[in-house]
Amino acid sequence: MDAEFTKKQTCAPAAHKLPLSATKHGKIYQIQFGNPKSECRNFGICRVDNLEGKLKKAVNACPAKIAFRDSGKIEISFFREYLSAEAEEIHFSKGWFLVESEYVFSNDLLRHPGIVARINKGLYKITTTEKFYKVIF
Q: Bridge partners of 96?
């Protein structure tokens, strides 16, 4: 798998253009890492849920902000302080975020009914800031 992280590849764009207001302003979601076709094992986004209660560290999940850009791209900002050391090493240490299988957002996370939002299979560059690992899909 490491060889895939070091190759430069073109990232596939999001399938549909979504307005910035597609999700509730300031909402934080819990993102479970993994492949949805492999029972949330391996690499990618397996689940996105509304976050209930306090932010906390989990072995294979992380709280994050999601923004749907006017360009049709989806930006996910993962809170670095809530990543477990294991999840950080597996998913963020190489500078690329690997998505093994397409992830389709459920309609209950979006404000606009009838819009389909998805993250395509691919390798995506990670931008590191003081508080976040940001990935634009």
A: 125
Give the pair of three-digit tokens for residue 126: 């990670």
74-79/61-68 β-pairing:
antiparallel
Rounded-to-integer distance, Cα 137 and Cα 135, Å? 6
Rounded to an integer, what distance in angstroms lies between the CA atom of residue 27 and that of residue 102?
23
Q: What is the pLDDT along the chain (137 residues), one digit of tens a residue?
A: 332 222 222 233 333 333 333 444 457 899 999 999 999 999 999 999 888 777 777 889 999 999 887 788 899 999 999 999 999 999 999 999 999 999 998 877 766 666 678 899 999 999 999 999 999 99
Q: What does 81-122 look like in DSSP terms, one character per residue?
A: GGB-HHHHHHHHTTSEEEE-S-EE--GGG-SSTT---EE-SE
Is 0.90 surpassed by the pTM of this model? Answer: no
